[in-house]
From TrEMBL:
Species annotation: Calocera cornea HHB12733
Name this protein carries in UniProt: Alpha-1,4 glucan phosphorylase
Function: Allosteric enzyme that catalyzes the rate-limiting step in glycogen catabolism, the phosphorolytic cleavage of glycogen to produce glucose-1-phosphate, and plays a central role in maintaining cellular and organismal glucose homeostasis.
PANTHER family: GLYCOGEN PHOSPHORYLASE, GLYCOGEN PHOSPHORYLASE, LIVER FORM
N6-(pyridoxal phosphate)lysine: modified positions: K714
Chain spans, region Disordered: 1-25
Enzyme kind, highest EC tier: transferase
Length: 868
């Protein structure tokens, strides 16, 4: 076939989105009596060929062998673990697709209201184990793979993590999808298909972090279904011309194609398999014919690569905004494609636009998808001829905004000239929204110019900037924080004026949660089985109603039960010790107290406090006599986490931790008393090994800075206790499990501003504030952990300014650590009781509860069981 292109048409305006309908979403035609007509061919032949879900072992081995032979074109002779993993994964994928098809078909038939979770990050980790657990087929696949000469656990270990996220925000999105499907909600996720996930972390000989790319798609990804038939055109740049009535025409610029990749999201013990749709970018035309004609082949090819660059890489920043044009384009590309797709689906119900919010709710995961607000306005006003006021009403009823941080450096602001360049039409719309909004403010508080300046969506300055959190707030029905304290701070600080304007009821809290499937059953099967036996409820029941953990509480007093419980922790610690030995060559004793701090490296999270505390402990032990040392409670301190590649101080902190670890581990006096480990390349899969093995975990942010934290929940759910500040979700955990079972320390949020003021205007030397800390700093400055000059910038942040209040909290931190040691050594039985009580009271922190709150209180969607 010869395709002809008319060169005169190239570069001209084309309709912005043309969606070719995919096979999903078609409905059967019906006869007059309502009977469905088989769409094509011989119905019997079709039905005989349709696959079910094999559940007996021989059908499963057949399915696996089929994929080895046909899909992979391999044989029993040349199959390694990776190949066997691929074959098993493909077979499980087939199972998922059966339910996925059915789920999507039933949604299309019944048209329930749907919710969409827009997130630039989905930190999924591995899929095989989770899919098997959710399908209830793990045992069968274990036997089947064994029959074929493989060990399922090894195959599970061959899978590469899908690291399409930075930290808590992205992992939360993944937990919410799992819970959405488990709670049988019509909930889809929308994100980007980054070709490179979060960088891999290596440690250089000098101890500093090195970043390597993560080309996770280099090995075939069985968990996605490419849908080359679902494509959407997205425009950037060009020119927007107003044509009256709030409308405009947007032409020219660059057009890029969004292609859908669908990731099935199975619910646990349900038929629901929801969808996560990830967009990939492709050049609109094979090449730019204009350049090609001119003989400029290089430029033609360049155009291609620039489209594909869009989804090349995940920005590696956590809680920090970067004003790069490519990032803005990623956001706009993803929002435009997702909205277009959502609208296409809405059009199938053939209802007036005013009813859009009765069929669609969209949750904005942080401000990253805020551009969806002007984009929906653009579609309604410019393309669908909806009057501005009606369009605004529809838009504000559709969106809901979750804020995940109050840190100023993380709040998104985009330079006006940049938006004007990349998205000229959206800038006009933002200005129009702002004008109408400020007029309403003026009506409410006439002549209050300060207030107008404060509340404007546009921040004055050079350049002007669009305040995305304000735009998201103005454009949404509800705004929520992610833990009580955080939601309170939002209302009192950054959104205070907006609370005055819109009223309190718009600003609510939904405390985060985690999925107990991955974060208990999957990562800690020993504990999960003991719980099942003890509370006498099947997993399929209690893993969906985590409040049933309460049933453990009476067993706290049962010494036989406690023994079993403690043994499981010990086994998990041995497992981690094995990992550390094999991968890092460090020997750790599993009878020591395991103290773990794993999270992104950030000054506000204060790994600094932990590392300084470790040095303090080291110095204290060094000063002891051998007899005294024998009485010390042995501790293994484990750190893990990545620093953003451009974050100098965070990287310096890693370097210091690694070198402290080296110094201490090389010191024979510390043997079996104090071991420090930095686990490189922290990931979801590593968390699954680390979390079940902790006795204590640290969540020690400066009060008021950690919006929620979610690993704190995971640790407690696995019988580890918290050492923490009165911050984020730590507070609610303590409320639930009883503050006797949490080790709290440090100043409270209320004190923070005054302390900062003091540091800035009335500084007192560290030597005076905390002699213990001063002694520690002196060791670093004296070169005990390597070149002192290298670490001086870190020491300086504490000596001067001390924005994160390390000096203020150091002494109470050391005290809290003493209490941990005492509690652990003095009365191990009492410790075990604390851990049992903690687990039994963690029911609140399931992401099932959280997602149901969003469903009921925000989206107004209903549970929609899928019948098969
Ligand atoms: C993070 C917070 C965490 C919180 C997660 C999930 C951002 C912007 N925020 O405290 O720092 O647990 O979001 O809500 O990544």
């Amino acid at each position: 076939m010869i395709t002809t292109i008319d060169p005169s048409k190239i570069g001209q305006a084309t309709p912005r989105r043309q969606h070719k309908r995919s096979a999903t979403g078609y409905l059967p035609a019906t006869l007059k009596d309502g009977k469905e007509i088989w769409p094509r061919g011989d119905e019997k032949a079709w039905k005989a060929g349709i696959r079910g879900i094999p559940t007996n072992v021989s059908d499963i081995t057949n399915a696996i062998v089929y994929h080895v032979q046909s899909t992979l074109a391999r044989q029993a002779y040349n199959l390694d673990n990776m190949g066997a993993y691929q074959a098993v994964a493909l077979s499980v994928r087939d199972d998922l697709i059966v339910k996925w098809n059915e789920t999507q078909m039933q949604y299309t038939r019944k048209q329930p209201k749907r919710a969409y979770y827009l997130s630039l990050e989905f930190l999924m980790g591995r899929t095989l184990d989770n899919a098997l657990l959710n399908l209830g087929l793990k045992q069968q696949y274990k036997t089947a793979t064994h029959k074929l000469g493989f060990n399922l656990e090894d195959l599970i270990d061959s899978e590469r993590d899908a690291a399409l996220g930075n930290g808590g925000l992205g992992r939360l999105a993944a937990c919410y999808l799992d819970s959405g499907a488990t709670m049988e909600l019509p909930l889809w996720g929308y994100g980007l298909r980054y070709h490179y996930g979060l960088f891999a972390q290596h440690i250089a000989p000098d101890g500093s972090q090195l970043e390597a790319p993560d080309p996770w798609l280099d090995t075939d990804n069985p968990w996605e279904i490419p849908r080359q038939d679902v494509t959407i055109d997205v425009r950037f740049y060009g020119h927007a011309e107003r044509i009256g009535n709030g409308k405009a025409v947007w032409t020219g610029g660059q057009e890029v194609l969004a292609v859908a990749y669908d990731v099935p999201i199975p619910g646990y013990a349900t038929n629901t398999v929801n969808n996560l749709r990830l967009w990939d970018a492709k050049p609109k035309r094979g090449f730019d014919l204009n350049s090609f004609n001119a003989g400029d082949y290089d430029r033609a090819i360049q155009e291609n690569s620039s489209a594909e660059t869009l989804t090349r890489v995940l920005y590696p920043n956590d809680n920090h905004m970067l004003g790069k044009e490519l990032r803005l384009k990623q956001q706009a590309f993803w929002c435009a494609a997702s909205l277009s797709d959502i609208i296409r689906r809405f059009k199938q119900v053939e209802k007036p636009w005013a009813e859009f919010p009765e069929y669609v709710s969209i949750q904005l995961n942080d401000t990253h998808p805020t551009i969806a607000i002007p984009e929906l306005m653009r579609i309604l006003v410019d393309e669908e001829d909806v009057p501005w006021a009606d369009a605004w009403d529809i838009t504000t009823k559709t969106f809901f905004y979750t804020n995940h941080t109050v840190l100023p450096e993380a709040l998104e602001k985009w330079a006006v000239p940049l938006i004007e360049h990349v998205l000229p039409r959206h800038l006009q719309i933002i200005y129009d929204i702002n004008a109408a909004f400020l007029q309403a403010v003026e009506r409410k508080w006439p002549n209050d110019r300060d207030r107008l300046t404060r509340m404007s969506l546009i921040q004055e300055g050079e350049p002007k900037q669009v305040r995305m959190a304000y735009l998201a707030t103005v454009g949404s029905t509800k705004v929520n924080g992610v833990a009580e304290l955080h939601s309170h701070l939002l209302r009192e600080t950054i959104l205070r004026d907006f609370v005055d304007f819109f009223g309190k009821s718009k600003f609510v809290n939904v405390t985060n949660g985690v999925t107990p499937r991955r974060w208990l059953d999957q990562c800690n099967p020993g504990l999960s089985n003991l719980i099942t036996d003890t509370i006498k409820k099947p997993k399929a029941v209690w893993l969906k109603d985590l409040t049933l953990l309460k049933g453990l509480e009476p067993f706290t007093e049962d010494p036989v039960f406690r023994k079993k419980w403690a043994l499981i922790k010990h086994t998990n610690k041995k497992h981690l010790a094995d990992y550390i030995k094999t991968h890092l060559g460090i020997t750790v004793n599993p009878t020591s107290l395991f103290d773990i701090m794993i999270k992104r490296i950030h000054e506000y999270k204060r790994q600094s406090l932990n590392l300084l505390g470790v040095i303090h402990r080291y110095l204290a032990i060094k000063a002891m006599t051998p007899a005294e040392r024998k009485k010390v409670n042995p501790r293994v301190v484990i750190f893990g986490g990545k620093a953003a590649p451009g974050y100098f101080m965070a990287k310096l902190i890693i370097r210091l931790i690694v070198n402290i670890a080296r110094t201490i581990d090389a010191d024979p006096d510390m043997k079996d008393i104090l071991t420090v480990v930095f686990v490189p390349d922290y990931s979801v899969s590593l968390a699954e090994i680390l979390i079940p093995a902790s006795d204590i975990s640290q969540h020690i942010s400066t009060a008021g800075t950690e919006a929620s934290g979610t690993s704190n929940m995971k640790f407690c759910l696995n019988g580890g206790l918290l050492l923490g500040t009165v911050d984020g979700a730590n507070i609610e955990i303590a409320e639930e499990v009883d503050s006797n079972n949490v080790f709290f320390f440090g100043h409270l949020t209320d004190a923070v501003e005054d302390l900062r003021h003091q540091h800035k205007y009335h500084p007192i030397a560290v030597e005076e504030r905390s002699p213990a800390l001063a002694a520690v700093l002196k060791e670093i400055e004296g070169g005990r952990f390597g070149d002192a000059g290298v670490y001086q910038p870190f020491v300086d942040t504490i000596r001067t300014g001390d924005y994160y209040l390390v000096t203020d909290d150091f002494d109470s931190y050391v005290e809290a650590n003493k209490m941990v040691d005492e509690a652990y050594v003095k009365d191990p039985e009492e410790w075990t009781k604390k851990t049992i009580l903690t687990v039994s009271r963690m029911g609140k922190f399931s992401s099932d509860r959280a997602i149901m709150t969003y469903a009921e209180e925000f989206w107004n969607i209903e549970q929609f069981p899928i019948k098969i």
